[in-house]
Amino acid sequence: MLKFVLRRIVGMIPSLFLVSVLVFGFVHLIPGDPIQILLGDLATPEQVAAVREEMGLDKPIWVQYGKWIAGVVTGDMGNSIFFGQSVLSVIGNRAETSILLALLTLLLILFIGIPVGYLSATRYGTKLDQSISGISMGFASIPTFWLGLTLMTFFAVKLKWLPSSGFPSIFQSGNWGNLRYLILPAITLSAPNSALIIRLTRASMLDVFKEDYVRTARAKGLREPVVNVFHVFRNSMNSLVSALGFTFAGLVSGTVVTETVFSLPGIGKLVVDSVLRRDYPVIQGIILCIALLYMAINLLVDIAYGWLDPRIRYS
Amino acid sequence: MPSDILLSIRGLKTHFSTPVGIVSAVDGVSFDLTRGETLGLVGESGSGKTVTALSVMQLYAKPQGRIVAGKILFEGKDITAMGEKDMYNIRGNSISMIFQEPMTSLNPVYTIGRQIVEAIRAHRAIDKKEAWAIALEALKQVGIPDPERRLRSYPHELSGGMRQRAMIAMAISCKPTLLIADEPTTALDVTIQAQILQLLRELKETMGMSMLMITHDLGVIAEVADKVAVMYGGRIAEYAETASLFASPMHPYTRGLMDSIPDIEKESAQLYSIPGTVPSLIGETKGCRFANRCPRALPRCTEEAPELVEAAPGHLVACWNRLGAGDEGPQDKRSSEAEPQSRRMTKGEGAQP
Predict the structure, then answer these.
(1) Distance of CA A257 to CAs A108, A136, A221, B304, Å?
(2) B92 vs A219: CB contact, 8 Å cut-off?
(3) B23 in contact with chain A, both atoms CB, cutoff 8 A
């Protein structure tokens, strides 16, 4: 198992290199000039040229790439053109919000999606199953901005149970109570994602119901709930694990709409803002980090596969 | 003596509702299984053998499938009237079942040991360690080499024959009085088939079980069965002691099945097969379901379904024009009847525009 993990980690290096080249290339293809944006319309061509030289943006692109990648390897992704701070600290400030929000949302998805999907599958064809399917279809189609604003109006403005927006850092204040700022955003994000997990749990369990070993389990005299949990659900976990893994990665990186609605300092919003500012180092850094996250999750999913299915473990 | 009868099925009808109509997969099946005996249930795919067995286990597809009539008396009690709770105590305990596909009938994510222990602990209030010991004993009993190691193996680490042995070990772990074997050797190599049949025969003897052997293979029936019930189109065509059935088949379908076995002694360019295909069982059917393929069909056959009647002591047949002692034996049939049959076929084809 350890060998398998090590082999996979080494195998990630070429992919990361490829990602870095692509990211660097594409970011520099975005039309627009960061210096012009930074200095504004009134800057003289001499000032622009001076800053460009200072930042190394006048060099050929492969020289810029070489400088950048050499820094990345040592953990230095350069400085943000806009903030002037190091890219890592810019990302780090935002990562806290995104990761905590993603974890909270994932928890909600797990506790809603799997039990409801299980219920739907074991009551297949009944009124309950049909209602669940209908409702989850509805949730999957609700636009997140609308749901977010509605929840905010109701729970934050009218009932005043929860704060409406923003997120004071827990990392800096040490106050875990700040998590309440993330409750409404997490509910907003979990609605469409839970609906997908409900449908996936139901579909994969219905697939397993047809397997011969489920009939064997019943023929042994096992009670229906035992058959459902230990034979049907257990064997449908493989497909769930990968879906949950990639849902998590998506939640860390791509929740711009929700972050905007709730004014959260997250990664998604940082990406959009940085693109608008042509803040090359930050965009590159974020995309590289997200690529790394996807690869790490891919690896975790593979490890989970091996843990769940002995046929994969031993081959 | 009623206590001699372990399983008695009377007028069983198991129907399935499908989008195209009601399928009468089992349509009035009756037979008895005596304690300590093996009853072979033989027929083509779609003849209702497996549904009959699954009806005994109450494991046919629900809610599409339903027992609409008949009784299944097991040890004198009617299974069709039992609730799920009572069935939990019967399944895997007094009635066990093994299946056709040993490759897919075991759960791939659990060890053999865990799966057997699960079956034992579903019926016995004992701890894991004791159950593990019983499982080990069961693996020894079915002749799996190195049983301690095999208990810790996963199904994919075993060959098909070994997996079927493991399935059998699981089935006998609670010492059932009835073992239902649904085509247990069909998916296996020929050499392994013989070993598995031998094993089942031995286990039946040593454990005093009765066995319901479901197969399409008359060779298997000849090996293991004391009595045979031939099924066609969801009904019993013929029921007799094995020797009597092979010596003098009375139903034209039974003889067709026997003629379909290639004879190594005779050189024949073509293998015999019964013309036509298994009829669709959707909706109401009138008359004998074999009539459209039967070489001996009478006008009456398409009008009225024949009852299962005792034509000779212990030999029951459902046919209006059964084969008697005067008719030629099965082996002669190929030469004498092959020609008229093909003529009949051509005529039939020509009649269609």
Answers:
(1) 19, 21, 51, 73
(2) yes
(3) no
* CATH tag, A94-313: 1.10.3720.10
- What is the reported pLDDT for B174? 92
Task: Give chain B positions within 8 Å (CB) of A310.
Answer: 108-109, 154, 156
On average, the pLDDT of chain B sits at 86
The model carries a pTM of: 0.82
Q: Give the residue among B237, B117, B151 at the shortest CA–CA distance from B229.
A: B237
Instruction: Mutation target for A interface from B79, B88, B105, B107: give the one with most A CBs within 10 A.
Output: B107
Closest listed residue to residue B193, CA positions, set B225, B220, B228, B216: B220
Which of B87, B101, B258 lies closest to B164, judged by CA? B101
The answer on pLDDT for B336 being more than 50 is no
CA distance A309 to chain B (A): 5
Residue A273 CA to residue B157 CA, distance in Å, equals 55
CATH 3.40.50.300 in chain B: give the residue spans: 1-94+176-353
Structure tokens at A240: 């769930």
How far is residue B283 from each of residues B19, B22, B299, measured CA to CA in Å? 12, 5, 22
Q: How confident is the model over A264-299, as pLDDT tens digits?
A: 888 998 999 988 888 888 988 898 889 889 999 988
Average pLDDT of B8-25?
A: 91
User: Which chain B residues are within 8 Å of A219, Cβ to Cβ?
Assistant: 57, 59, 91-92, 96-97, 99
Domain with CATH 1.10.3720.10 in chain A: 94-313
SS3 string, A261-298, reads HCCCCCHHHHHHHHHHCCCHHHHHHHHHHHHHHHHHHH
Cβ contact (<8 Å) for B122 and A223?
A: yes
Q: How far is B165 from chain A (nearest CA, A)?
A: 14
Joined tokens for residue A143: 């636009």
Burial B125-160 (b: 16+ CB within 10 A, else e): eeeeeebbebbbebbebbbbeebeebbebbbebbee
Arch. (CATH architecture) of B1-94+176-353:
3-Layer(aba) Sandwich (3.40)
CB contact under 8 A, B157 and A212: no
- Residue A172 burial by CB count (10 A; 0-12/13-18/19+): exposed, middle or buried? exposed
Q: How far is CA A303 from CA A5, A297, B32, B347, in A?
A: 8, 10, 54, 66
Higher pLDDT, A237 or B285: A237
The per-residue pLDDT of chain A, averaged, comes to 88
Contact criterion met (CB < 8 Å) for B109 and A314: no
Q: Which residue has the higher pLDDT, A174 or B203?
A: B203
pLDDT tens profile B44-81: 888 899 999 999 999 998 888 999 999 999 999 999 99
Task: Judge: A219–B63 Cβ closer than 8 Å, yes or no.
Answer: no
